[in-house]
Amino acid sequence: MSLIGKKVGSFKKNAYFNDEFIEVANKDIAGKWSIFFFYPADFTFVCPTELQDLANHKSAFEDAGCEIYSVSCDTEFVHKAWHDSSEIISKINFPMIADPTGSLARDFEVMIEEDGIAERGVFIVDPNGVIQGYEVVASGVGRNAAEILRKVQACQFVAEHGDEVCPAAWAPGKETLKPGIDLVGKL
User: Fold this and answer.
1) Which residue, 1, 37, 131, 178, has most beta carbons within 10 Å?
2) How far is CA 122 from CA 77, 85, 182, in A?
3) Pairing of β 117-118 and β 120-125
4) Tell me: the pLDDT tens digits for 92-127?
5) What integer pLDDT is reported at residue 186 of this predicted model?
């Protein structure tokens, strides 16, 4: 079953961000684009490379008006310990949401119940709290922040220009398509 068009359920979670424990809730995602970046666990192998890649692209996400939230089933205390002990994770510049009960992972349907961890899923959420895009990959496969950003920008474009669509490898400023009978059989 697809999660496209699903509204993010009500949530209120603790997070670690900017050397503080904070709370992140639905009110924080209202009115802006967001990505929820689920990863299996702190102190692992592929996860820090992905989070570092996201941190390196944070200004581009900000330029696109998109907030980044990383999420694992660890506590905010574990997030802080990882942040304090890892040179890579010490550079994380977005909220690291704690989901020790797995309720957020379940809402996004990425909870691996028997392991108590989340799958590697990324979700693009629009300003109304509705999922517009997502991808879930095997635990050994790292994701690319530049491609996630491109998908966010494509979702934003389609939301703003409902009569145009973005072809494969589209990037901002590139040509889009306007679906219609005149395109049938011509592409």
Assistant:
1) 37
2) 23, 25, 35
3) unpaired
4) 999 999 999 999 999 999 999 999 999 999 999 999
5) 67
Q: Which among 134, 144, 139, 142 has a CA at the least distance from the CA of 8?
A: 134
What is residue 137's predicted lDDT score, i.e. its pLDDT? 97
Beta bridge partners of 66: 33
- Active-site pick, 47, 66, 73, 155: 47
In this prediction, residue 2 has a pLDDT band, given cuts at 50, 70 and 90, of: very high
Question: Side chain identity at 91, as an amino acid letter?
Answer: K
34, 69 Cβ separation under 8 angstroms: yes
Instruction: Tell me which DSSP letter residue 51 carries.
Output: H
- Give CA–CA dist 26/29, Å, rounded: 5
Annotation marks residue 155 as catalytic:
no
